[in-house]
Q: What sequence folds into this?
């Protein structure tokens, strides 16, 4: 849509004003409240920003592609004056005094902040089911495509309790974009938290190279793997948002200084014959659903038939990745969570017999089981007696995993093509049969190695499953070759013609949706 | 070894781990009062006994102590080590706290260039090897004045290692002899300062000031004793020593305590202890149940700190983005050791005098300014500056900068002395006048008080004659064979001249008159 806005820009042409656009999104947010996509809706802020944007358009001083465009931000990015909870009791009521760099950059471009989106507590999870504000519902649960398929299935029961998870942990951001309540949303991606829900919600989910986008203000999960992620309805939109966000930040010493081509304008590839696509053989795991496997294989065929070279490559250390990720992730979590002690901000218990007792009770009350479990594991791995055997070993394995990718790219591969998830989204009741840890280990299988290597990766919606649910595939690029990666993804997106979600049945007021859909649909097939 | 670091004030903190392997301690029987010498022996060079106060008797055990110091000194910088917030002494509590300093979620450390330069300079001054690549680590523990729950430090690969510092130890009967010694520096690391806890026992609450601790030097001493040739003993750590005097006392006490404990069949626990200023003893802190595990982890938000030198500096590197060790080396001032050697060479002064000149802030500069302006011999200048001038300062507890006597005034005074315009006794008088700070020059004082040396031999002879006549008893003594009596006469004549006459000339005239 942003691309269309740029080309046709109804805002510029005055067909719709930023305030009207903002109000439409606010009304959709209200209509889709049951999805639980937002923790905080910043209605007043958004309307005020829209008003200012409108003035700029009237004066012909638009700030660019994002001026007047409604966006949402995952609730683990600090927003000045707006509560930032990480979906945790620990930070309920915490109002940061500053904006995360990425939030500030969006605002500087004139974007409208619609609100803060739901997630797993402190982004620890792969379902967006484990936050203190309850699970996020996948808008596709209510889509015409899914409903029709279910009607054909004689086994389908109570529809209302059969809603699907969004994936996570950026499920709120994915649901918000998928339900047209905004045009782009920030997620965070530590092991797949942006790409996983993007795949389940039929969106583009982009994880930039580590160091390309500032983490300042992102409440960390794993500092050495976290990156702000971008969720949009098409690749061009993701590129526009990336263009606004990328670049060195003096407040984040891990951002790189090398100049990168800005803005991120993506050429339309006419020809893929010079491309080499790598298919990592280790990603063909028994747990992979036959539908995803088949789509993956079709995608490879598509590239081949269009003249690209398609190679099977090996990433031999893949099978160690999840366990290695577990050690590194929990260790950093244990460290990062130490600051939440109830003294300065966030939750504090009533116990005051001693500082230590206060710490213990505050942390007991403030964190859920998942967070506490990871803190416990992490502290175990960091103990002097365990450090060499766990943390140092995991770091070595991480290096081997990163080298696997380097070797694959050195063999001439431009991008790797893999599944994003094992299967399409599952119903909530199905999902919670396994615990968070098991689920995370399963669901991050194709995504987290990329975080260990710091590479850019994007999930692109490919097709609907037999059940009428989106399936995504993942492209992985060379470090800091984000533009090349997105260019390939854009070509692929154009070929696959992923259908627009049909939510008419969901909304009472169809006209609002339909009218909005003119703006909102990706419509790349036309 | 802490002295050079004392000047370091400001935010951010520089830790020096100085490992001081002790000289041997000989001990016999009951403890005696001479422990202080032994302690100074501790802060001496490794493996070779510096000196001992008592020789062990045959068959008795010889004890050696090993002392390692962890010195925390603040870096003189305008802003904190990892944040842009200011550093200012005695600012109101929590008035200089950035979001990072308060550990707000999502904030990240940004390394202060000035602090890195200061650390490199310190490393160079302490003869360290500067690591071209160093790393930052997180050290975890829960404490109210540590808002992040961890401290960023350099545990594994610090910025500088393997240094040494030469210093002087007083010895001899009057402690006037200085023996140069060398201490090894294990490492220098950049470390974030914790906050300051202010305990209000009355209301049983603790207030936290995240401006961070104020411009101080803090030392933790690790101490153990063992028999030479045997494995090292179990060590204790005496924490938070904030003056050199207490440091010495604490180490002194702790070594003695450990020896007593072991000789009485006890054992030393690996524990932290505090030093009680009033009682002069160390006490177990018992604040940590069991062993503290700091769960060190690499700091993921700071990339490795890479330093360059002339050979490794990448072509076209932005000078604002890189730190060049060689460039810092060029800005290094003359080090005290070199200055001392130069003073000994250039002015032929004793090594201990060079130590004294450097140990007093501003004294060397004063000395050099006097030297520049006077014709007097350097030895004379040294003597006047170190004895007369420093003596007056000490007596009145003044700093060099507070002295009422300027280098120029002293230089002029020494010129008058050198040209034999006044006697040294008169010079002392002039100095006393100068010290009053009335703005008179030595020349003015000399002429007002008529202190010029009596060069007129005739008048002096006259004076001697009068004195002899006035004191026949003394003359008689002298003639009866008491040669010392002449000193009395000299004294009387000098008094009569208001010390303006050269005693040698007086003596000569007197002797001549007596023998005639």
A:
């Amino acid at each position: 849509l942003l691309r269309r806005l740029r080309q046709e820009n109804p805002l510029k042409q005055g067909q719709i004003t930023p305030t009207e656009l903002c109000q439409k999104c606010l009304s959709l947010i209200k209509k889709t409240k049951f999805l639980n996509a937002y923790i905080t809706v910043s209605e007043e802020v958004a309307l005020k920003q829209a008003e200012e944007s409108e003035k700029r358009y009237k004066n012909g001083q638009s700030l660019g592609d994002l001026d007047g465009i409604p966006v949402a931000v995952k609730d683990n990015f600090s927003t000045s004056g707006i509560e930032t909870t990480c979906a945790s009791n620990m930070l309920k009521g915490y109002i940061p005094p500053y904006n995360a760099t990425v939030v500030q950059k969006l605002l500087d471009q004139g974007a409208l902040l619609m609100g803060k989106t739901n997630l797993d507590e402190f982004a620890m999870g792969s379902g967006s089911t484990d936050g203190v504000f309850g699970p996020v519902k996948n808008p596709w649960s209510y889509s015409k495509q899914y409903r029709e398929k279910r009607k054909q299935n004689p086994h389908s029961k109570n529809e209302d309790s059969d809603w699907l998870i969004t994936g996570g942990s950026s499920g709120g951001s994915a649901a918000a974009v998928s339900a047209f309540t905004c045009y782009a949303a920030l997620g965070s991606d530590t092991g797949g938290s942006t790409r996983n829900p993007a795949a389940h919600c039929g969106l583009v989910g982009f994880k930039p190279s580590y160091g390309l986008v500032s983490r300042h203000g992102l409440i960390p999960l794993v500092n050495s793997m976290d990156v702000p992620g971008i969720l949009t309805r098409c690749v061009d939109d993701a590129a526009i948002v990336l263009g606004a966000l990328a670049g060195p930040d003096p407040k984040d010493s891990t951002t790189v200084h090398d100049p990168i081509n800005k803005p991120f304008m993506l050429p339309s590839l006419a020809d893929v014959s010079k491309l080499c696509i790598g298919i990592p053989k280790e990603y063909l795991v028994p747990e992979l659903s036959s539908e995803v496997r088949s789509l993956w294989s079709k995608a490879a065929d598509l590239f081949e038939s269009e003249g690209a070279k398609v190679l099977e490559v090996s990433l031999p250390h893949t099978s160690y990745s999840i366990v290695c990720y577990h050690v590194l992730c929990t260790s950093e979590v244990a460290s990062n969570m130490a600051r939440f002690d109830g003294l300065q901000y966030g939750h504090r218990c009533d116990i005051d017999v001693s500082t230590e007792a206060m710490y213990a009770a505050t942390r007991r009350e403030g964190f859920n089981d998942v967070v506490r479990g990871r803190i416990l594991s992490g502290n175990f791995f960091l103990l002097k007696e365990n450090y060499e055997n766990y943390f140092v070993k995991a770091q070595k394995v991480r290096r081997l995993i990163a080298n696997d990718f380097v070797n694959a790219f050195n063999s001439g591969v431009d991008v790797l093509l893999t599944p994003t998830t094992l299967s399409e989204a599952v119903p909530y009741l199905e999902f919670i049969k396994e615990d968070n840890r098991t689920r995370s280990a399963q669901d991050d299988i194709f995504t987290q190695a990329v975080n260990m290597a710091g590479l850019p990766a994007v999930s692109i919606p490919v097709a609907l499953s037999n059940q009428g649910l989106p399936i995504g595939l993942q492209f992985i690029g060379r470090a800091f070759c984000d533009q090349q990666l997105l260019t390939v993804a854009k070509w692929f997106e154009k070929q696959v013609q992923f259908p627009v979600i049909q939510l008419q049945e969901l909304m009472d007021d169809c006209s609002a949706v339909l009218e909005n859909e003119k703006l909102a649909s990706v419509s790349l097939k036309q | 070894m802490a002295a050079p670091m004392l000047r370091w004030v400001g935010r951010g903190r520089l830790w020096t781990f100085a490992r001081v392997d002790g000289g041997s301690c000989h001990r016999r029987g009951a403890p005696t009062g001479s422990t202080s010498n032994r302690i100074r022996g501790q802060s001496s060079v490794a493996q070779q006994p510096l000196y001992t106060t008592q020789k062990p008797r045959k068959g008795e055990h010889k004890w050696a102590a090993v002392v390692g110091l962890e010195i925390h000194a603040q870096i003189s910088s305008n802003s904190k080590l990892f944040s842009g917030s200011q550093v200012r002494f005695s600012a109101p509590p929590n008035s200089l706290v950035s979001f990072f300093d308060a550990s707000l979620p999502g904030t990240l450390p940004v390394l202060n260039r000035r602090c890195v330069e200061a650390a490199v300079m310190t490393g160079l001054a302490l003869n360290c090897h500067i690591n071209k690549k160093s790393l930052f680590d997180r050290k975890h523990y829960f404490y109210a004045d540590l808002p992040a729950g961890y401290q960023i430090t350099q545990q594994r690969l610090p910025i500088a290692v393997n240094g040494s510092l030469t210093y002087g130890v007083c010895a001899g009967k009057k402690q006037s002899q200085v023996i140069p010694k060398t201490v090894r520096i294990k490492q220098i690391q950049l470390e974030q300062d914790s906050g300051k806890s202010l305990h209000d026992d009355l209301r049983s609450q603790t207030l936290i000031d995240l401006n961070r601790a104020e411009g101080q030097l803090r030392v933790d001493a690790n101490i153990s004793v063992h028999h030479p040739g045997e494995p090292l003993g179990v060590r204790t750590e005496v924490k938070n020593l904030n003056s050199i005097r207490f440091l010495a006392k604490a180490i002194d006490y702790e070594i003695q305590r450990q020896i007593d404990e072991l000789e009485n069949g006890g054992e030393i626990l690996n524990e932290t202890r505090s030093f009680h200023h009033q009682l002069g003893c160390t006490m177990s802190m018992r604040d940590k149940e069991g062993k503290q595990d700091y769960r060190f982890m690499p700091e993921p938000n700071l990339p490795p700190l890479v330093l360059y030198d002339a050979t490794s500096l990448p072509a076209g590197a932005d000078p604002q983005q890189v730190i060049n060790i060689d460039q810092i080396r060029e800005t290094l001032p003359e080090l005290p050791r070199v200055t001392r050697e130069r003073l000994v060479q250039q002015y032929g002064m004793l090594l201990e005098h060079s130590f004294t000149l450097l140990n007093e802030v501003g004294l060397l500069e004063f000395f050099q300014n006097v030297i520049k302006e006077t014709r007097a011999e350097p030895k004379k200048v040294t003597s006047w500056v170190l004895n007369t001038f420093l003596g007056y300062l000490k007596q009145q507890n003044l700093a060099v900068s507070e002295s009422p006597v300027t280098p120029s005034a002293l230089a002029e005074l020494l010129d008058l002395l050198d040209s034999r315009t006044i006697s040294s006794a008169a010079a002392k008088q002039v100095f006393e006048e100068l010290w009053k700070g009335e703005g008179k020059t030595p020349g003015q004082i000399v002429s007002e008080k008529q202190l010029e040396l009596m060069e007129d031999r005739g008048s002096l002879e006259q004076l001697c004659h009068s004195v002899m006549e006035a004191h026949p008893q003394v003359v008689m003594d002298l003639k009866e064979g008491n040669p010392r009596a002449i000193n009395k006469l000299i004294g009387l004549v000098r008094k009569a001249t208001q010390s303006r006459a050269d005693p040698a000339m007086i003596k000569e005239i007197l002797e001549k008159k007596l023998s005639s």
